[in-house]
Amino acid sequence: MGKTNRTYDLKTKRKAVDLYLKEEMGYKTIAKELEIDVAILYRWVKHLQAEGLKGLKEKRGKAKGVGKGRSTTQPETTETKLKRLEAENALLKKFLGK
């Protein structure tokens, strides 16, 4: 079975990054103390320096761009379904030459 991803809250991330930047503790020391992976801590510091606090917010599951993520349209009504099917039939008739 695969490893499950653990999610950390903003407070924990901020504490870890502050220990590194303000208290000048090492990555390994902080990671051991807070029981997190060194690579995760390194990534948090890099994101904070590049994007500020916004960089520490959770990004997983957030669709970006047009046409990504779940559709926000309502279920198809009977009328719209009928119109769509009639248009499909007309198109098929045109291609079949009827």
UniProtKB/TrEMBL annotation:
Residues 58-67 have a biased composition (Basic residues). InterPro entries: Homeodomain-like_sf, Transposase_8. One of its GO terms (molecular function) is transposase activity. It comes from Priestia filamentosa. GO terms for biological process: DNA transposition. This is Transposase. Keywords: Plasmid. Pfam families: HTH_Tnp_1. Residues 58-81 are annotated as: Disordered.
